[in-house]
Description:
mainly alpha; two-stranded antiparallel ribbon; DNA-binding; about 55% helix; 2 strands; Arc Repressor Mutant, subunit A; homodimer
Amino acid sequence: MTSSRRKVSNLLGLAVLGLLQESPMHPHAMAATLRERGLDRSFKLTTGSLYDVVRALERAGWIAAQETARVGGRPERTVYAHTPLGKEEFVRWLDELLRVPADEYPKFLSAVTYLGALGPEGAAAALRERAGRLRELIDGIRREHEAALAEVPRLFVLEAEYALRVMETELAWAEQTVGEIEAGTLEWPDGWVVDTSSTKEA
Amino acid sequence: MTSSRRKVSNLLGLAVLGLLQESPMHPHAMAATLRERGLDRSFKLTTGSLYDVVRALERAGWIAAQETARVGGRPERTVYAHTPLGKEEFVRWLDELLRVPADEYPKFLSAVTYLGALGPEGAAAALRERAGRLRELIDGIRREHEAALAEVPRLFVLEAEYALRVMETELAWAEQTVGEIEAGTLEWPDGWVVDTSSTKEA
DNA sequence: ATGGTTATACTCGGATCCGAGTAATCGGAA
DNA sequence: TTCCGATTACTCGGATCCGAGTATAACCAT
């Protein structure tokens, strides 16, 4: 009952709806615009999905094809615009996404569940590497964010601030856990380390 | 190049592999066991996907059907066991998941990207509700975690600690942002609030 | 014994996802 | 002028995902 029977589920649809609030556009232009604005960091953007999503939005009546024009001899392009219904739904969808925390299943959470199987050394090594990579990612995003702040109002880069906070927490957790493993504070019951001695030797 | 061309992509496969390290099992029992242990908080578990994933793991040679027995007149059940290859792959998969932060696209991140469209009041209201829900979720998980700690070693409930940390960060961000909106600290450029006056009146 | 509920165990088909492919045009260098 | 690579614009089909459905059996009360 959280949010399942939504007509269009792919969040890329929200991005499309968002773009069309500004002006009509054809799918290829949507992709280009999203990438230009760096929104492909927040939305998973692939060509295939984009066209599927656009079709789904049209079926739902939230956007409508305006014209089907051929510029030169290139493949036809269909320009879409939002409908009044689409405008409403954009806001409703957004509102619900913000209000209700969705249960998601980040890969790392699943992996941590079986952390024990790597043994203390294996687990510490893996988490150390993750921490390093996280530091780099954070640095990159922070730099981009600062650059962006010089160009646009802060409201439009809030998502980067949120992402940074979360990643910093992940980093802190990884570092802390490595520390506990090294210090021996984290008890490691026997019989839970998966033995790979047979085909080791890399 | 992050981790795409993996033979089995659904993380539920990791859970299956994990269970089979302990003992052979048929799919229905896997589902039951995962739910019993509360692992369905970390892995998205649906019947349909489970059977698909088991088939995929078998195709890949990481697990193998042991026997196909009929107990009573109920539908046949096929018991699977991990193969040596499956044991290795379990560890390799786990290791990679831990080392390399995957780029995921949490729904909330996408939504925050368009926070502006709700206007200051709308955005604050939505985030306030989210904060409330997050507080309840956190309370629930914290209670469960404490109860679990009395039963099993901490190593086996680490994922709850991680999840709690992340959720607390999300909560803090939401609260802080509400605060800034209320205080007027967060500049709200005009022309970005989607107008829904036409069909309002709810 | 009859009926109702719960548990066992899996199948099915539609929806979705997405990378690789197709196909035409344009700009510029040789 | 002709070739090549980049750009524009979209299609296709296989893989995956998953909720709803099917079918039997065990348990219990009436």
